[in-house]
């Protein structure tokens, strides 16, 4: 059994507010008996070097902290500070933690808020899944299914059909984990559990919870406490997810 703590969208930008919320979540997680932490993108708000230095300093724990990029991240600065590499190629990473493989895909399109898996990322994922010798958790920033929130659905993963085709042919994929929506949400994708982590920095309001006409200016609820998902992955591949908010 493995416990994956899943957080997302810290949007660290040097502000006290974003920093306080990230620290609140990390303080909570450091007190939990978990096997790893996955941060599913939008680590930084503007993709600045100084923001990644904050990511590197704050998103740390005694267990592995895996991260992947979102639409607010910039590949070159991300690579430079967090990976010690150059260039702006998609940041696709394979990690092995406690007998589980984490295939983390870069779903960003530089300069845009919606997402897609680039041809080289699809090829990389195909190869990883073909050679996998352990259960695989696939992570990416953009949600590949409709979440029924019109604003968020307008900037989802564009080529979800190509992504689904790869997963459907693969053995061993136990879950698909994403962020971006700033909303704890559960669904299924390509026959696998699909979980979107809550946003650390804010929560998106849902159309049916308010009579306001939601716009990008008012969709973020800044008062909701930052949330965490705990995915319990059993040895038989069953995934059970719990959601909590980080206490002050
Ligand atoms: Fe975000
Ligand atoms: Fe995002």
UniProtKB/TrEMBL annotation:
Keywords on record: Hydrolase, Iron, Metal-binding
One Pfam family matching this protein: Metallophos
Metal-binding listed as a keyword: yes
Top-level taxon in the UniProt lineage: Bacteria
One example GO MF annotation: hydrolase activity
SUPFAM superfamilies in the cross-refs: Metallo-dependent phosphatases
UniProt name for this protein: 3',5'-cyclic AMP phosphodiesterase CpdA
Every Calcineurin-like phosphoesterase domain range: 3-183
Homology family: Belongs to the cyclic nucleotide phosphodiesterase class-III family.
């Amino acid at each position: 059994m493995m416990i994956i703590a899943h957080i997302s969208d810290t949007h660290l930008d040097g502000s006290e507010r974003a920093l306080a919320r990230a620290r609140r979540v990390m303080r909570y997680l450091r007190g939990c008996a978990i096997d790893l932490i996955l941060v599913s993108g939008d680590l930084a708000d503007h993709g600045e070097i100084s923001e990644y230095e904050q990511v590197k300093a704050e998103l740390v724990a005694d267990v592995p902290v895996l991260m992947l990029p979102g639409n607010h991240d910039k590949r070159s600065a991300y690579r430079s500070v967090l990976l010690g590499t150059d260039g702006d190629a998609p940041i696709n990473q394979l990690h092995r933690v406690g007998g589980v493989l984490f295939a983390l895909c870069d779903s960003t399109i530089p300069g845009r808020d919606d997402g897609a898996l680039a041809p080289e990322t699809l090829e990389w994922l195909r190869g990883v899944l073909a050679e996998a010798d352990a259960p695989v958790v696939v992570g990416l920033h953009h949600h590949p299914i409709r979440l029924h929130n019109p604003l968020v659905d307008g900037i989802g993963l564009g080529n979800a059909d190509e992504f689904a085709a790869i997963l459907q042919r693969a053995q061993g994929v136990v879950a698909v984990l994403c962020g971006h929506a700033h909303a704890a949400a559960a669904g299924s994708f390509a026959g696998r559990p699909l979980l979107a982590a809550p946003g650390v920095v804010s929560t998106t309001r849902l159309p049916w919870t308010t009579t306001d006409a939601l716009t990008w200016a008012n969709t973020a609820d800044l008062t909701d406490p930052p949330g965490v998902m705990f995915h319990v992955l059993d040895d038989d591949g069953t995934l059970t997810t719990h959601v909590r908010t980080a206490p002050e």
